[in-house]
Amino acid sequence: MIYCDNGATSWPKPPQMLEQMNYFVNEIGGSPGRSGHTASVEAERVAFGVREALAEMFNIKDPQQIAFTKNITESLNYVIQTQLKPGDHVITSSMEHNSVMRPLRMLESKGLELTVVQCDEEGFLDPEKVKAAIKENTKMIIVNHASNVIGTIQDVEAVGKVAHEAGVLFTLDAAQSAGLIPVDVEKMHIDFLCVTGHKGLLGPTGTGAVYVNPAIKVEPFMLGGTGSNSEFEEQPEVMPDVWESGTMNIIGVAGLAGSLQFLKEVGIPNIHKREVMLTQRFIDGIKDIPGVKIYGPLDAMKKTAVTSINIEGAVCSEVGKVLDQGFGIMTRTGLHCSPAAHKTIGSFPQGTVRFGFSYFTTEEEVDKVIEAVKVIAEAAAE
Amino acid sequence: MIYCDNGATSWPKPPQMLEQMNYFVNEIGGSPGRSGHTASVEAERVAFGVREALAEMFNIKDPQQIAFTKNITESLNYVIQTQLKPGDHVITSSMEHNSVMRPLRMLESKGLELTVVQCDEEGFLDPEKVKAAIKENTKMIIVNHASNVIGTIQDVEAVGKVAHEAGVLFTLDAAQSAGLIPVDVEKMHIDFLCVTGHKGLLGPTGTGAVYVNPAIKVEPFMLGGTGSNSEFEEQPEVMPDVWESGTMNIIGVAGLAGSLQFLKEVGIPNIHKREVMLTQRFIDGIKDIPGVKIYGPLDAMKKTAVTSINIEGAVCSEVGKVLDQGFGIMTRTGLHCSPAAHKTIGSFPQGTVRFGFSYFTTEEEVDKVIEAVKVIAEAAAE
């Protein structure tokens, strides 16, 4: 079995993840911020440690400006649904995931003004085009750091600079970059950083986070018990409590602590280096196979380890099925919740077959995948 | 160490929980509903198995009417924030948690009409008073099944009957009852059932669920990728997809599968019986100690295993600290995110010391807790 669906969720996980989850359940067990007893205080310490580790990774000064969420979709909804009002103008790109497009389209139907800047066929966004789209009422620019369909890495530092020079908020969807390539909220001028725990951060499902620039006033979205200001029936408005209603997934957060420890030990530059090597090996291995079309950049330095292809004469869902059942290779086929991105790269509505490698993928596995693509392409050509 | 904070989160967990989580991470690993490959399909099977187990437990006909959430606060916010509009009238009780009161108060500030029916000093809600509060524009009645402060169990079957006879929606907050006493959506006339995974269901944090009566049209709240209708930038409006945006906490859901298996083997009636025995033993052991005030019913059949007390001459946070550091007994002190409930029982703003037992609590532990209360009460009286 060769797992190539790391764009959806990373697998395997570093052993530290389960170790920390098991330790938490067996030895700690409390709910953070809810009680004053030993177990609860210890749970709070675990949660704060993860806030600190994320702050260190993303160059965030105050760890309390990071709220835990269940996934990046929750993070993005908090930002989009609380910060944007009817009459505001928002700029995004044509390479976004539905976790950005669906909330924006919903708000558009209620009076939000939306500009979708067209990317080129390799998925690249031109920061100058973003700059040209800014208007009097532009409130926010929101883009992803790397495409979930073809891996294209955007020059988000330039986009962030454009935003801040115009006094516009900048939100980064780092679903496909956090843990894989450097993300720096200062250098990239990021006001809202949205991440998920279970992809490049190699943590468990049910974990995500959202960072907010401390200069920005935050409004509640989901309201409930926060373990703070319990005497009031109004939601507290300070981070992280304002966006952390109800019992947090502390078992998941404990697991994320283990994963972040692993990432720190290996180092993100080393992870990136390895993924570039694996991805370039894959691209070079398939790019000359007759009938194989690769979408996006062919230079692995310009993308993450996610690569989309199609094979002439074969439907992508069928290719995925043969890869799975004939070769034990797991990919994700179709539209990857990103119809706009597929329209941009020219693969809508049929979709693509997406391969996503991770630090744990081996060169031998990549070679087997190349061989399988070759066999399927030859069969399709007959 | 004696853990008496099961009202916040249950501990220990049945061994099946971690077994299933470890198995999922090590042997399955895929994201449900996202891809067509073996791991993803297997993950989908795990998720559907939990929907089926919850459906069986709560007498729900169609498991697809259950959406997974991160906690009950999310479940309640989906229901409250999507179903209720300005001008609607809502009836709730004076014993509710802030996960109900905070969203309702926020909507009240935007034009929702809210009636809070006063409960008696033991926390009981009179269904006749609920009936009398119904008006022309009443849209929903929302109450908890059991108090998180004093354990009082409401006659929710009668409240549900009142609701349905008047053509009003009935929402049940089963945070403190699911897994501990029977919950039956048909018998209790429940339109929206909100539960959490990490309390009485003995599952991991980061899991919760919301059931919706199939006759009710559901609106999106958090929007994003659902792995379905990927070609559209609009949220699908069918359950469970409409309320399951982004990657679900499938590792947590796998753990919940193990916990539900344990609950099925033991049987909820047996769990209830044991908790009644432990709670009655505790109440009988402390009720005659001079200076000890017990809030709520003294008959354990009328309540869950959560009991609140105060000790004359001692501040509750101090009592909690002494219990923890002097006796290794973990409780939760203060207002338990439920200011209205404390006002109802007469313990606002000082709060109470809350003891919460579980199926795993032993009689010896209860006796040690009684002894500790006795020692602290005697010291406070001096």
Tally of individual helices of chain A: 11
Largest interface: A-B, 88 and 87 residues
What number of structural domains do the residues of chain A give?
A: 2
Q: CATH architecture of the largest domain in chain A, please?
A: 3-Layer(aba) Sandwich
Q: Topology as H/E string of chain A?
A: EHHEHEHEHEHEEEHHEEHEEHEH
* CATH class descriptor name of the largest domain in chain A: Alpha Beta
The fourth-level CATH homologous superfamily of the largest domain in chain A is Type I PLP-dependent aspartate aminotransferase-like (Major domain)
Query: Helix- and strand-based class of chain A?
Result: alpha/beta
Biggest β-sheet strands, sense, barrel of chain A:
7 strands, mixed
Q: Averaging pLDDT over every residue of chain A, what do you get?
A: 97
The percent range for helix content of chain A is 25-40%
The fraction of residues in strands of chain A falls at 15-25%
Assembly form of the protein: homodimer
Low-confidence stretches of chain A: none
Intertermini distance of chain A = 27 Å
The CATH topology of the largest domain in chain A is Aspartate Aminotransferase, domain 2
Global shape of chain A: globular
User: Which strand order does the major sheet of chain A show?
Assistant: 2-8-7-6-5-3-4
